[in-house]
Amino acid sequence: MRSPAAPHESRAAWIFAGPALALIALFFVLPLLAGFVLSLTDFDVYAIGSPGVARFVGLGNYLKTLESRDFWNALRNTLYFVVVGAPISLLVSLGAAMLLSARLVRFKSVFRTIYFAPVVTTIVAVAVVWRYLYHPHYGLLNYLLGLVGLGPVDWLGDPHWAMPAIILLSVWKNFGYNMLIFVAGLQSIPDELYEAAEVDGAGPWSRFRHVTLPGLAPTFLFVGVTVMIGYFQLFVEPYVMTQGGPLRSTTSVVLLMYEQGFRWWRMGAASAIAFILLAITLAGTLVQMRLQRARR
Amino acid sequence: MSVAGSRARPIRSVALHAALFVGAIGTLTPLLWMVGASLMKAGEANQLPPRLFPKDPTLEQYVALFTRLDLARHFFNSVIITVAATMLSILINAMAGYAFGKLHFRGRDRIFGTLLGALVVPAQVGMLPLFLLLREMGLVNTYMGALVPYLASVLGIFLVRQYVMSVPDELIHAARVDGAGEFRIFWTLILPVIRPILATLATFVFLSAWNDFMWPLIILSDSAKYTLPVALANLAGEHVQDVELMMAGSVLTILPVMIVFLVFQRAYVRGIMAGGVKG
């Protein structure tokens, strides 16, 4: 059906797509390739002024990174954030989406807007706000916990609680986004399936289990992958709220990369961390795609 | 069934609305507290029990933001970078999205597939060399350097492409038969038709450029050039005790994006649905 490209059309296409492709090539692809080369060198603060002094060190940065306790600590913290935070975030998103999609609910758009509001807020600003909500003495959260006889918790000062505090903030900030995607996914499930299940005598749980969940499978794959990629990039919350502390319990991989690269100007070492992060993200994406395919 | 159903219905309805209401309160409380505390006198937010609303609302914190802290400068920096990024990215991505959606050229689908694959690469991976590259180009500490990452976006191209594909080919063919050039077709035929998705794209870029932190933190080293979020993060470190002042700064940072979101909500939500359902 498709007609062969007329020469003038093809020329116009390249002119239209050209600026975007050139920008992506220059500011995304080139840095990606250069970053890999950089990760194989000992580029440091001295090389900033005269790049010629940087030497090729092969996989040295990778080996050093994989031997450093700081890296494993950062990776452990990041995995904690991803493995605990992402599923909680998804469950809250799905729960909110199901509530919003219930047929009896009125003022849907009002609730939807409210739930979505944190998504559009500036993460730096809400991190500043939550730092005060988490204040051990005057913070609203400890006050509310105190009303039911719990706490007080030194949220950001206790190495055991700092990461849960960051997870709570992230779930609050992010759940509205995937809630919308789940709402769209729920809408795409035909009503007849629910009606048929009801005729067969399926209760609410059984309908959820055998109609809703399978119907949402494609949504789960998309949301699972994007949330995981996003959560691996944890940076602003620890940067603003804890500076990676206490006792480096909230230092994430990206925060470590930032410190190495832009505080100590160890660009080679920082690039190696960046590429290890990329490898982990890609591996996580592949695993998710496999799992989801196997389940289907 | 019908009798039991009609009796269960009001109870279910009340339970659903109660759950939604509690969720809404929980979601809004941090933002309400932020606004309330920003209108308090210094020290008022540090008392027990915590107050959600000020005793006598005052704008003194906001006055201090603009007099003592010179946040107007950073607000202005953010506005320039965000508005320029939004306008440029609409133009660049609309053109590219049209080319990928409607024009035929060799390698089109392969290039597009490669672009989509790039979506899984975290932006931070290329940031160090990008900084070095912009340093060579003399763009460190410039507005131009700050808006580079937002100019061309794969997601933007994708959104426009999906939308433009629904424009009937006959429309474009007819224009060509009438002798319209490719640029005339784009400007006078395509752009007006795809305006809804451009609103979506504009909202996306505006929000992400305004809210972004890591890139402006890296590329803007001179504090006079800081965007609002970078300035706020900096101030929050120095003024830990000034709760009310920092809340006013947070309100100032969040308010513009909140307004843009509320005005363009439909366009924005459409974009999320399009990206989520088809992506």
Overall description:
The complex is a heterodimer of chains A (296) and B (279). Chain A has 14 helices and no strands. With 296 residues, chain A is mainly α. Chain A has a domain at 71-265: Orthogonal Bundle (MetI-like fold), CATH 1.10.3720.10. The longest helix of chain A has 33 residues, at 7-39. Chain B has helices at residues 2-38, 60-67, 71-102, 108-117, 127-136, 143-147, 154-164, 169-177, 182-193, 195-211, 214-219, 228-238, 243-263, 265-278. The chains are: A mainly alpha (296), B mainly alpha (279). At the A-B interface, helix 1, helix 4, helix 5, helix 6 and helix 8 of A face helix 1, helix 3, helix 4, helix 5 and helix 9 of B.
Please give the structural blueprint:
The complex is a heterodimer of chains A (296) and B (279).
Chain A: H1 7-39, H2 45-49, H3 60-67, H4 69-101, H5 108-120, H6 123-133, H7 140-147, H8 162-187, H9 191-199, H10 204-215, H11 217-232, H12 236-241, H13 253-263, H14 267-295
Chain B: H1 2-38, H2 60-67, H3 71-102, H4 108-117, H5 127-136, H6 143-147, H7 154-164, H8 169-177, H9 182-193, H10 195-211, H11 214-219, H12 228-238, H13 243-263, H14 265-278
Helix pairs in contact in B: 1-13, 2-13, 3-7, 3-10, 10-13, 10-14, 12-13
Fraction of helical residues of chain A: over 70%
Helical segment tally of chain B?
A: 14
CATH class of the domain at 71-265 in chain A: Mainly Alpha
What is the residue-averaged pLDDT of chain B?
91
Multimeric status of the protein: heterodimer
Strand fraction of chain B:
under 5%
Structural classification of chain B = mainly alpha
Quickly give the structural class of chain A: mainly alpha
Please report the distance between the alpha carbons of the first and last residues of chain B: 41 Å
Brief account:
The complex is a heterodimer of chains A (296) and B (279). With 296 residues, chain A is mainly alpha-helical. Chain A has helices spanning 7-39, 45-49, 60-67, 69-101, 108-120, 123-133, 140-147, 162-187, 191-199, 204-215, 217-232, 236-241, 253-263, 267-295.
